[in-house]
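User: Could you check the structure of this?
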Amino acid sequence: MEADTPLSDRLDDDDYPAYTMGRAAEMLGTTPGFLRAIGEARLITPLRSEGGHRRYSRYQLRVAARARELVDRGTPIEAACRIVILEDQLEEAQRINAEYRRAASEASGAADPRPS
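Assistant: Sure, the predicted structure tokens are below.
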């Protein structure tokens, strides 16, 4: 996102990297080490500030929170990350499937006019 984008737009953007590692860890009730670990597991990839510091978006914090829930229940961190990735892929596949069904329904309705 460009620097000339209004602040209100950036704050409303779920993908805007607004949170430092320390603040993100505090909000999640975890440690910076946990955030580094899920980054190493490629669950999330924080953006970097000009100074090289990690920055997290609200979307990334939601993903990290889900991983933390699983870890808190005893799931190993690598498995928790894989589960979250699979959940995200399933949600996306379901969204696409719903779009296809909607488009097919609209197409069949247009191709099959009802008698008046």
